[in-house]
């Protein structure tokens, strides 16, 4: 990767699971040195998530390429000293502990700031560092329920953890803003990133709709699905997703299939125009998925055949855009990886030189040597259980 600002950036990563790995992956792909600080007794919990290949979890593989791993006992005094030695030369700390954990360990932001005033500390928690609810255990689905979102999507559990992804994105934005501020002021910052707040932000359009409807919103009063923004079944059981909200797209489709009479009902929901829905559904059922695909290939009308995951991945990889590629990793072989979508001309983020996800403690010696520890000191730390064994 070409030299850039991020290549001189060091991120100390205390996170686990999706929301943290999602956030730090962005910095690793941009060239930053991301060091996962992991407990010596297993490390990041997502290392053990099935399915696995040659001892490597799909979960860990998706989120942790280009990172380094230091297995460190932060409950030991020597472990804390090692950590603070690393903080002295670091730029960003990101963690997902419950509020108060790092303070009890003696390595919280105030302590970090005392050894490095420019450090940026990003803490990710349920409701913020000062909210007592952040001391309770929650998962993605719980925040979806609390935000009102789950009641509007029919109570369906999504294959994607929306709240984790929203929070990971918010963490990236907070850290980037703090880095920009530091570039001008020279001062570090504490970023208090909140999972619930991050997802409520994602709900802003729905919540505005609630306000403009006079204090109520339901699945039946949402914009979609509508006649021109819906999913229709084909003759052989396939599906076509349509989003023909603009007049030119909608009218082209209606004219091609003799459905001009339903034109006025474009934005109607099923309960408002049931006969129009029946006519459009019937039109889609008269042709196979392949026939619809052939028709849509020559049209510009915001409609697309619904692909299976297998079809979608095959299509993305074969497009050769670099968005999704198979990297050749030594432990997992040919491994599917998805790039972070940074497309800034001066900051190339590529999978071309991606290195595989680190084994627990794989970089212990390299990191500690870089911090000034001798081989003898490293051996002693291993013997005392301050660091874990290297793979």
Broad CATH class of the largest domain:
Alpha Beta
Helix content: 25-40%
Count of alpha and pi helical runs: 16
Q: What is the spatial order of strands in the main beta sheet? A: 5-2-1-6-7-8
The figure for the number of domains is 2
| CATH fold type of the largest domain | Rossmann fold
Which residues form runs of ≥5 with pLDDT under 50? Answer: none
CATH H level of the largest domain: which superfamily?
Crotonobetainyl-coa:carnitine coa-transferase, domain 1
- Based on the structure, what is the oligomeric state of the protein chains? single chain
Straight-line N-to-C gap:
27 Å
Mean pLDDT: 94
What is the name of the CATH architecture of the largest domain?
Answer: 3-Layer(aba) Sandwich
Please tell me about this protein's structure.
With 391 residues, this protein is α/β, with parallel strands linked by helices. The chain is built from 16 helices and 15 strands. The strands form five sheets. The protein has a six-stranded parallel β-sheet, sandwiched between helices. α6 packs across α9 and α8 packs across α9.
In brief:
The protein is α/β, with parallel strands linked by helices and about 400 residues long. It has 16 helices and 15 strands.
Key phrases:
single chain; 391 residues; alpha/beta; Rossmann fold; formyl-coa transferase, domain 3; 16% strand
Describe the secondary-structure layout.
Blueprint: E1 10-13, H1 17-29, E2 33-38, E3 52-53, E4 56-57, H2 58-63, E5 67-71, H3 77-89, E6 92-95, H4 101-105, H5 109-115, E7 120-125, H6 140-147, H7 149-152, H8 162-185, E8 189-194, H9 195-202, H10 204-212, E9 229-233, E10 239-243, H11 247-256, H12 274-285, H13 289-297, E11 303-305, H14 309-318, E12 324-329, E13 333-338, E14 343-344, E15 347-348, H15 364-370, H16 375-383
Parallel strand pairs: 1-2, 1-6, 2-5, 6-7, 7-8
Antiparallel strand pairs: 3-4, 9-10, 10-11, 12-13, 14-15
Helix pairs in contact: 1-8, 6-9, 8-9
